[in-house]
Amino acid sequence: MSAEPVQLNDKRPQKMTLAHATAASAPSVPGRRSFFTYRDLGVAGASQGKLRAQTMTAVTGMNEPTGWHYHTCDGQFVYALKGWVDLEFETGETLRVKAGESLFIPGGLKHNEIQASDDLEILELSVPAEMGTVACEKP
């Protein structure tokens, strides 16, 4: 029995494509922080720039905070695969995101990563794929 092809959305101006990444095929890419390695999961190209997916893995322990900053995007989603990371936000909240936990950060929300475990590994998504980082003063 063969399945009929499914149209995901006929109204899209650009077609998205299938993307499959493996540990061997996902390339290392430059990233924002020297204490992480970054791997691109191929979603930005497949989604026509609508979504970016990458992993961030600790190389060395985080020996100082990242500094206050915000991202130029609609939103950033992080899911901790291993370890933990502490973040503070302009709202006054401080959160520890541990393995198995997630966090959505709206674009433009000022935050600072305070510390992280030596084994931190995160899956990070951003909408759209293009995400800039802007340093700012502590709120």
Structure write-up:
With 139 residues, this protein is mainly beta. It has one domain: Sandwich (Jelly Rolls), CATH 2.60.120. Helix content is 3%, strand content 42%. The strands form 3 sheets. The chain has a 6-stranded antiparallel beta sheet with strand order 1-2-3-10-5-8. Strands 7-6-9 form a 3-stranded antiparallel beta sheet, with no helix packed on it. It has a two-stranded antiparallel ribbon with strand order 4-11.
Ends apart, CA distance between termini: 61 Å
Envelope shape: globular
* Strand line-up in the sheet with most strands: 1-2-3-10-5-8
Average residue pLDDT: 89
Q: If helices are DSSP runs of H or I spanning 4 or more residues, what is the number of helices?
A: 1
CATH class division: Mainly Beta
Strand content: 35-45%
Number of domains: 1
Strand segment tally: 11
Output the helix-strand order. Answer: EEHEEEEEEEEE
Tell me which CATH architecture applies here.
Sandwich
In CATH terms, what is the fold-level topology? Answer: Jelly Rolls
SS class: mainly beta
Compute the gyration radius: what is it?
Answer: 17 Å
The helix content is under 10%
Name the quaternary structure: single chain
